[in-house]
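Subject: sequence -> structure tokens, single chain

Hey, anyone have a minute? Need the predicted structure for the following. Not urgent.
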Amino acid sequence: MTTLNIPRDINLIEMYENQTKIFDSPEYKKYKDTLIKYFQEDPSKKYERVEVTDEKTQDTNYLLLSNKNVNKEILIHPSKFTNLYDYYLYANKKSNEILYKISEYVENKDNIQDEERSDFDLIKTEYVTLRKHLDEVNFIFNNQYNTVNELLDKKLKETIELSLLLQDRQDSYQRIGDKRITNIQKNQMAEEFKKNNLKIPDDFIIKKISKDIGDISFREVENWFNWIEKTYLYMKKQKELNLIDKDISSVLNKIETESKNLLFEIPFIQKKK
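Reply:
Had a minute. Here:
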């Protein structure tokens, strides 16, 4: 059930921070299973299904009545959700309207009748509740902004580093000049790079490779290893940047889902046997 009517005693910050914990709890799983039982077809006709309206809150609850035992019943009080974006707009507009009414009361306080004073107390209480929840929503939105902003700052930093690595890679390739080697020789160097913990090997290995190939100098082999290292560092940074993009996407999806479907009232089940 989605609603904009949120009781004063609900702390939206606590509810927002505990969404995952609530949904993963055994109690919530039991609630979902019972709710499925209510809405699914029952071939055995074990239960009769009845929608019950709470006289005080006007909420719709769901009642399962056993056809075998009249004293056995399960009353389901469903979850209550709100859309934080819609609620923020509603609460902000409503609180401003109430503030205007309050100012009218204050201006005419000497002429306020008892009935009007009672109305004044009611709207004042409603105003305090709305402002409390607006402060909580603002806190949530600010935290969301900070979380995303930190990731965007990190992405910017990594992007700059990636562009510098790309330039280094291109420069190292230019230093190779016109001296080309076969793919087999290039793979041999790549294997030596891997064996050396993804670092350029020492001079002994470089001299050996130069001697094995025969028509390439020590400096030329060293240039190829520099290019291999720069290529590795570039690809490594690119993977790190891709992971940051995935993190940003995941965080944004989580924020949107939880903000549009914020559970603020935990469901519960009453059983009578």
